[in-house]
Write a structure and sequence with these properties.
By secondary structure, this protein is an alpha/beta fold. It has eight helices and 16 strands.
Length: about 280
């Protein structure tokens, strides 16, 4: 009987390690109303919530998965570093190598917002070839057409600098300044998915987000159990969501933070392929 118990515990332990260290590449086809024709088949790889984790020596397995996906750009949607285990060299090494695969665009998450050395970290990312999109936009060009890619800084950065306003007001003003509604098919990187209605109202056509860690524990037929900013059974915990003409891809992320274990929730790299589509409505 003892042997059976030990075997069961060993099997559970192996399963837990596998479920937290085995990478999953999640392919997502996104039908995009208003997407310029030149962007048919445009591929984007999303890495979110790495939290200084490593997959293989110096993130070799993660980088190999990105290279194999052949993305045209790579999106880093926050919490590349971890404020509790601040090993910035790990995050910077990954970013530098990712930038050798494809152009990389990054927005800070709530963990970077807590870093006293965030300004130096952002400068080091830029030096490594990463475009830091903290409340700014740059053009993506394909063929003869272009679309903007914009990023929202986590509101914690402004609050840490002394801004007394709530997150919604900070994000709303940053979105208004980006003037996304006046531009063709704006892409938006925003770490926190719970503000999707605000992003949609602000004119974003397609949002890439993370933060929820897939709900950390995923239950069959139910989905994620808990996410910061959303609480129990979060609405936006992983996958593709729609609100009116806006859509949002939420990555379940790669690393862990305060809670060190994923259950039924393998680390994932999202690879999204964009396709023009007729206009749709929905929630």
């Amino acid at each position: 009987m003892l042997c059976l118990v030990l075997l069961l515990l060993a099997a559970l332990g192996v399963g837990a390690v596998w479920g937290n260290r085995s990478l999953q590449v999640q392919e997502v086809a996104v039908d995009c109303p208003g997407l310029p024709a030149a962007f048919q088949g445009f591929r984007l790889a999303q890495v979110s919530d790495l939290h200084n984790a490593t997959f293989g020596r110096d993130n070799a397995r993660l980088l190999a998965a990105l290279a194999q996906a052949k993305p045209e750009i790579i999106l880093l949607t926050g919490d590349l570093a971890d404020s509790r285990r601040t090993h910035l060299a790990v995050a910077l090494s990954f970013a530098r190598q990712a930038a050798a695969i494809a152009p990389v665009y990054y927005v800070p998450g709530n963990h970077e917002a807590r870093l006293a050395q965030y300004a130096a970290f952002a400068a080091a990312l830029e030096a490594a070839g990463v475009q830091v999109l903290a409340n700014r936009a740059v053009p993506l060009v394909r063929g003869s057409q272009r679309i903007p890619i914009a990023g929202l800084a986590d509101p914690g950065l402004a609050q840490r600098a002394g801004d007394p306003r709530p997150a919604e007001a900070i994000l709303g003003d940053a979105l208004a300044a980006l003037r996304l509604s006046s531009q063709p098919f704006p892409l938006l990187l925003a770490h926190r998915p719970e503000w999707f209605p605000l992003y949609a109202e602000g004119g974003a056509a397609l949002v890439f987000s993370g933060h929820a860690h897939g709900g950390q524990v995923r239950l069959p037929g139910i989905g994620g159990l808990f996410a910061p900013g959303q609480g129990l059974f979060p609405r936006y915990n992983g996958g593709l969501y729609r609100r009116g003409q806006a859509q949002m891809v939420v990555s379940r992320g790669l690393g862990n933070s305060l809670f060190p274990l994923r259950v039924g929730n393998r680390p994932e790299v999202v690879v999204a392929t964009l396709h023009p589509a007729p206009s749709v409505e929905g929630q």
